[in-house]
Amino acid sequence: MIFPCILSGGVGSRLWPLSRKDRPKQFLPIFDGESLFQKTCKRVSGDLYRRPIIIGNNAHRFLIGEQLEEIDCPADTILLEPAGRNTAAPALMAALIAQERDPDALLLLAPSDHLIGREDAFGDAVQMAVEAARAGQIVTFGIKPTSAQTGYGYIRMKQGPGPIYPVEAFVEKPDLETATKFVADASYVWNAGIFLYAASTMIEAFATHRPALLSQVRKTLATRRADLDFTRLDPEEFGKIENISIDYAIMERASNISCVPVDPDWDDLGSWSAIWTVLQKDGAGNCGLGDTRFLGSSNCLAYADEGLVSVIGLEDVLVVATRDSVLVAHRDKAQDVKTIVEQLEAEGRSEADAHPRAYKPWGYSERINAGERFTVQSMMIKPGKRLSLQSHLHRTEHWVVVSGTVEITIDGEVRLLTENQSAYVPLGAKHTLHNPGRIPVRMIEVQSGTYLSDDDIRRHD
Q1: pTM for the predicted model, two decimal places
Q2: Which parts of the chain sit beneath pLDDT 70?
Q3: CATH architecture type of domain 2-267
Q4: Which residues of 282-318 are buried (b: 16+ CB within 10 A; e: fewer)?
Q5: 362-459 architecture in CATH?
Q6: Quick one: pLDDT at residue 187?
């Protein structure tokens, strides 16, 4: 059986304003109600696979847990990276973890932000590669190119009988003229960054080509500790790991690299124009997500997070409206969204990083409004979950229950609140919330005071 290793640490800034640092594109539930992360997890489940090893950003830990729970997909390990370290370290960490479970383990390394339309074709390609991986090959899955793309890396294969071909070279993202030549040459495929290998093969490759990286990763994994359903690593040791991709560290150096060409209707959905290409469209080429309307428009995309978005008399335009930001762009300029995000980051704007909804171990909170001395947010507390016992030095809170029944504790006094009932939390009072029921609790919280940031929280348990 194969250990899937799913890499979920990307940002996806070109899908701003829907994609943010704290809720990036792989977690957006815009594909038939599921996210790319969830679709990836489901794609690598079944009789051929073991529970997945998830490697993700510490900031996304509760989002990862929530989405795995939604699709009933328990993980073998959810390994939290204190910072981004490209793909080499995760590929090696997954190999070391899998080898602890099974000395003969195979791993399928896959990004979590790709869309695959023909999952049967992808599954067949994986099964085709199993024997080669067991024989000591590192197998990559090359996507048969359908157009001259300059945003993808390419793989050049040696010609032979197939269906698995030795790899001659990994080629950097080309210019348009070179990409056009590649598409016409059957020996070139897109590099999707998906690999199948034996754990022992990958560990040996690092021992040969990157021994210092192997040594540091071993030291870092030795610092592992459990935190709820997650596995944490020592930030200081992790920070010493070389920041390098698996392509540069191993694939361009090793001689035991093979490729399975496959045509699974693949897309990495790196921009809003790419999203437009895969969504269902009306007769005029328009596609909408949420409450959207089109009039006299063609080849447009509209997204409405809440409220209504109407597009009138426009062609080839992207309109994305979230609670706190609106993007309007020509489809040909979709790649430039990243530049806007960089400008917002340079200005210290929260819209670049923070999504209005923040996932917590107990559920989520979602910002509704905020001013100089107040914040209003909605909260959802999952059945059986409890917030930490806490107090604040600079703010008071007022709770109003919208639905469900919540148990509140304020300075040791415990009572139940049901729909339309409210409670006041004075300055400095120790308080907590608990959902003892079987349905989610939904409530509104109003914070008021001179300082409203999260670092005003004093936790007592």
Answers
A1: 0.84
A2: none
A3: Alpha-Beta Complex (3.90)
A4: eeeebbbbeebebeebbebbbbbbeeebebeebebbb
A5: Sandwich (2.60)
A6: 87
Would strands 431-434 and 406-410 be described as parallel, antiparallel, or unpaired?
A: antiparallel
Sign of the alpha-carbon dihedral angle for 14, 248, 176, 139: negative
Place of tokens 């609140």: 417
Contact 25, 269 (CB under 8 A): yes
Tell me the C-alpha distance between 105 and 4, whole Å. Answer: 11
Tokens 């598409």 correspond to 183
Tell me if 52 sits within 8 A of 76, measured CB to CB.
yes
Tell me the one-letter amino acid at 181.
Answer: K
Q: What pLDDT does residue 381 have?
A: 96
Alpha helix (H) residue ranges in 46-198: 61-70, 88-101, 119-134, 176-183
Q: Tell me the sheet residues that pair with 332.
A: none
356 Cα distance to chain centroid: 17
What does the buried/exposed string (b/e) look like for 361-385 if buried means 16 or more CB atoms within 10 Å of the residue's CB? bbbbbebeeeeeeebebbbbbbeeb
Q: Where are the domains of the chain?
A: 2-267, 272-346, 362-459
